Each structure stands twice: as structure tokens, then as C-alpha cells.
Amino acid sequence: MSRALIEMDGASKSFGGVKAVNNVTFTIDEGGVIALVGPNGAGKSTTFDLMTGFQKLDSGRRRTMGIDTTRSPSYRFPELGVARTFQKVRLFPSMTVLENALVGGLAKFHSVSAAEGAARRALERLGLDDRADRSPAELTLIDRKRLELARALVPEPTLLLLDEVMTGLTPHEVEDAIMLIRQLVDEGVTVLLVEHLLKVVMRISRRVLVLEHGQLIADGTPDEVQADPQVIEAYIGVPRHEEVDDAGR
Q1: Which of 16, 62, 124, 156 is the most exposed place for a label (fewest CB within 10 A)?
Q2: PROSITE patterns attached here (predicted)?
Q3: Whole-model pTM?
Q4: Are 223 and 163 contained in the same domain?
Q5: b/e for 141-157, b at 16 or more Cβ within 10 A?
Q6: Which of 101, 123, 156 represents a domain boundary (last residue)?
Q7: Domain for residue 25, yes or no?
Q8: Are residues 126 and 193 in the same domain?
């Protein structure tokens, strides 16, 4: 049986009167690519924030690598083997590319030199090693995304959460991203992916979770999820039986 990496039990989060995540329960088990999808505003990024301590749970509990982390701050998670990127790239403009990557390893490694070594390896892997001494402001948006991904790889995570890393990429760049994700999986990293490119999601994921209005409405294989009437209604806006009825008229 696969090891549970993160367990969310009855997770809820509201902003004002809006229930962004509503009593969501699921377990992210070890191995392969798992996708978290849903229409805009479904609560995907907020769920990522709750999973990694960037938002506090209003109610519910969270366990990470078997440890209760319900009240743990975000900086604790790299120590436990969890790293992430953000939908909107978050970099330190006053630091160099290398320093931005190095920050990702400070919670994991016991020395700056060890963190720097890991940072240089991650930058080389993402094709940014020749810009290590530059400012992030000199990078293109795509390269800033690569830098944030490099920073997430520095602590050598067991679980990597990727929040829309393929948005804005060319088809060739998407294929490069897929290749990198598959390489990471081959190396033993479990990848949890939030992505709007559903064809990509269904192609590379072994399991897909679907959110709508902050609630988990489906959890299964890509084939199971694509055939689920609730998922079809969430994405198309028309219940499946109505589509069939209309087609027969």
C-alpha cells in the first residue's frame, strides 16, 4: 500500500462570506502524477495554500508524512519533504537568481554551502545556470517560472506541488515541462499538479481530483473523471442527461 504524504480531513477556508474550500477530505499517496483540477474559482490554489501552511485552516485537520501539521507554519514543510510553486511567481527582486534558488534549501540543509550546491544543480537542470548572478527582473516570465521551479527542487522534495506551471508556455515548452515532470517521477518524486490544460492533465496523471465551488466532486482515474456526470456539468454547465435529451430532439 502506498504511503500517505498529505492527508486533508474536513478542510475548510472562508474569505469574508465566501467558502473557498468547503469540508474537503482526501489523501495524496506516494507515486506518480496526481492532478487537482476544476473551473476558475473552484478553490484549487487555496487548497494548495492549505496543504502547505500558507493559509490557516478554519476547520479540519492536516497530516504531512504521518505528522499532524494542522497548526504548522509554511516554513516547516520543506523539512518534511514538501515543496511548491505558486500560480503567480513569487521571487525576491533584490536577490540574484542563485540567491533566489538557494533560499529553497535553507530549511533543509544545515549549511549555506550545501544549499548553494543544491541550488546550482537545480539551476543547471532548468537551464538557468548561465544567469545565476543576474537579477530575476532580467528574466522572461517563462524563465522566472523556471527559477521558481528550481527553488522548489533545491530541498529535494518527496512531494512537489506545481500550481499552473504550464500556463503561457508554447507547445514545445509544454512538452519540455512534461518530460521534466516524468523525470522527477522516475526519480521518486510525487507530483501534485494544478493545471488548466486538461489534455495534458489526462495524459500524464494516474489520478485526478476535481473541485467545484470549494467542494471535491470527483476523485479517480482520468477515464473515470472524464465520464463523471458531475464533472461534465461543472465544465460544460449542462447536466449530461439534458445533453442526451437535447441531442435526441
Answers
A1: 16
A2: ABC_TRANSPORTER_2
A3: 0.89
A4: yes
A5: eebbbbbbbbbbbbbbb
A6: 156
A7: no
A8: no
Do the domain assignments include residue 231? yes
- Measured in residues, the chain has a length of 249
Q: Which of 156, 187, 210 is the last residue of a domain?
A: 156
CA 217 to chain CA centroid, Å, is 19
Q: What is the pLDDT along the chain (249 residues), one digit of tens a residue?
A: 689 999 999 999 999 989 999 999 999 999 999 999 998 889 999 999 999 999 999 999 999 999 999 999 998 999 899 999 988 888 999 999 999 999 888 888 878 999 999 999 999 999 999 999 999 999 998 899 999 999 999 999 999 999 998 988 899 999 999 999 999 999 999 999 998 888 899 999 999 999 999 999 999 999 999 999 999 888 756 444 444 344 333
Q: Which three cell numbers stand for residue 100?
A: 533566489
